[in-house]
């Protein structure tokens, strides 16, 4: 009877750990990580374009000052 109880406890613990492992958490985490990378790349591109526009604008103002 004791061995049957021990087997039941082991089976219950094994089943619960397997159920938790197949919950899809890894897929969700990978999806979130991918979205974060895409978002960061888009943000960096936008910041670079913003900086380039500011430099071009300051060069245009400097050019207008020297011509005028």
Automatic annotation (TrEMBL):
Keywords: Signal. Residues 1-21 form the signal peptide. This is DUF4148 domain-containing protein. It comes from Pseudomonas laurylsulfatiphila. The lineage of its organism: Bacteria, Pseudomonadati, Pseudomonadota, Gammaproteobacteria, Pseudomonadales.
């Amino acid at each position: 009877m004791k061995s049957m109880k021990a087997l039941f406890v082991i089976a219950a613990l094994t089943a619960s750990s397997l159920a938790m492992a197949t919950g899809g958490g890894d897929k969700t985490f990978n999806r979130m990580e991918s979205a974060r990378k895409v978002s960061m790349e888009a943000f960096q591109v936008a910041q670079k374009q913003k900086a380039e526009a500011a430099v071009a604008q300051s060069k245009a103002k400097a050019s207008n000052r020297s011509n005028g």
